[in-house]
Design brief:
By secondary structure, this protein is mainly beta. It has 1 helix and 8 strands. The strands form 2 sheets. Strands 1-2-7-5-4 form a 5-stranded antiparallel beta sheet, with no helix packed on it. It starts with a helix and ends with a strand. Keywords: Signal.
Length: 168
């Protein structure tokens, strides 16, 4: 029995000594990398236009009939653009003399870039279009319209459609 006690005492002593030794277990390891994140921002524009409603034209009046419309442009920030207006759909129309129609009848009108109605608005980029640089926000461009006075035309509902083109 003494032998057994000695063996037990030695076992307890050995266990105590092992517990005093520093732990040599597995240590945590790491590995790392990175993710490259990219995006390309598109150059894009959106354009919306309000109608230009002249109202009632009086062919006996000595004064022209004026009206306005708005062309709203939103493009990617920093995008240079131009806004052009077509001649419209009236037979024989040009960008300087547009023609609203009612059956076979035409009523001449013009579209301008400025309130004084002195700068024609056409569709030749660099010549008679309106230029802008986008801010990323909506930019309004006013279209100034005029029906010249003294046109001898029959009464009726005249209309035309002008295409708006944003070049960027």
């Amino acid at each position: 029995m003494t032998k057994q006690l000695n063996i037990l005492a030695l076992t307890v002593a050995a266990a105590a000594m092992v517990s005093l030794l520093p732990a040599t277990g597995a240590q945590a390891a790491t590995a790392s990398t990175s993710i490259l994140v990219t995006a390309a921002v598109a150059q894009a524009c959106i354009v919306v236009a309000t109608p230009l409603a002249f109202g009632v034209y009086d062919p006996t009046s000595a004064s022209p009939t004026d009206g306005t419309a708005t062309v709203a442009v939103t493009c990617t920030t920093g995008t240079a653009y131009t806004v052009g207006l077509s001649a419209g759909g009236g037979t024989g129309a040009t960008t300087t003399v547009r023609k609203m129609t009612f059956g076979a009848n035409t009523l001449n009108y013009a579209l301008y870039q400025n309130a004084g109605r002195t700068t024609n608005w056409g569709n030749a980029v660099g010549t008679d279009t309106v230029a802008g640089t986008a801010t990323g926000l909506l930019i309004n461009h006013t279209v100034y319209g005029r029906i010249t006075a003294g046109q001898t035309v029959p009464m009726g509902a005249y209309a035309d459609t002008v295409a708006v083109t944003v070049t960027y």
